[in-house]
Amino acid sequence: MIYLRCEISLSEPLAIPDYEKYDYTREWRNKQIEDLAEKKILSKWITPGKICLELGGGFGRLTSFLEPRFSQIVMVDFSRANIERASQKLKKTEIIRSELHRLPFEDNKFDYIFLIRVIHHLADPLVVLGEIQRVAKEGATVVISAQNPTIGRYRHLKTNTLVAIGDCGHQIYLAPLNYYSTKNLKETTRLGTGMFENFVGLKLHRLTFLHSVDVMFAPLWYLKPNIFMRLVVTKRRD
Predict the structure, then answer these.
(1) What CA–CA distance (Å, rounded) separates 39 from 45?
(2) Is 222 helix (H, G, I), strand (E, B) or coil?
(3) Total domain count for the chain?
(4) Cα(76)–Cα(79) distance, rounded to whole angstroms?
(5) SS3 sequence of 7-46
(6) Gap between the Cα atoms of 83 and 97, Å rounded
(7) Is 91:111 a contact under the CB 8 Å cutoff?
(8) What ranges make up the beta strands (E) of the chain?
């Protein structure tokens, strides 16, 4: 495994939460059902053997699942603590420390790009999506997960909106789901997960076969708290 630290200097400072004090591994304790459901969704959209980029890969939860499915894989995260955890479990992934608004890659490099459970922390997701389009090949698959704003009091949102601030300064944003589909990034498929991401799922976490139930009803995305969108890069930016 190649291990590379890459610091990116910005023209304007970002309000980045204190990721070093936030342990994402704790967040996934007893969530085996949701974890398996998400991996099953991703497997539906993967053609093995391509070049993959995962943004905000954290401690490598999904990276370890993606790693054997691609000939080359790069994972980016900002947290040194996450990178250290990920480096202990990954075998061939190139791990890069960077924020996401100016990615340290050349144009037209990746066949697949994954942005899972990240976009709801971004104040300016369209900037990051622009970078994704830049480093993606023409026709590349981009998979984004986002919280479902159509459930609850935020269903009338018109744009990306700060709705909460969590532990360690984590900012939580919501946006209408079509906000992430741009001129050169077209959505093709939308599925939902999270049927068991609740107290019931935590109690029944050993019954991992329940992830198949969640995936079975994934097309009923409008009833699920977590949305997975498959998008395709259709045209290079000028």
Answers:
(1) 10
(2) helix
(3) 1
(4) 9
(5) CCCCCCCCCCCCHHHCCHHHHCCCCHHHHHHHHHHHHHCC
(6) 7
(7) no
(8) 3-5, 51-55, 72-77, 94-97, 110-115, 136-147, 161-165, 171-174, 185-193, 226-233
Evaluate whether 207 touches 37 at the Cβ level (below 8 Å): no
User: Does 159 map to a domain?
Assistant: yes
> Domain range spanning residue 202?
3-233
Centre a 10 Å sphere on the Cβ of residue 99 and count the other Cβ atoms it contains. 17
What CA dihedral angle connects 46, 51, 54 and 58, to 10 degrees?
A: 100
Res 10: pLDDT: 43
List, for residues 129-187, the tens digit of each pLDDT value. 999 999 999 999 999 999 999 888 888 899 999 999 877 778 899 999 999 998 899 99
Q: Is position 238 within any domain?
A: no
134: its two tokens = 């830049």
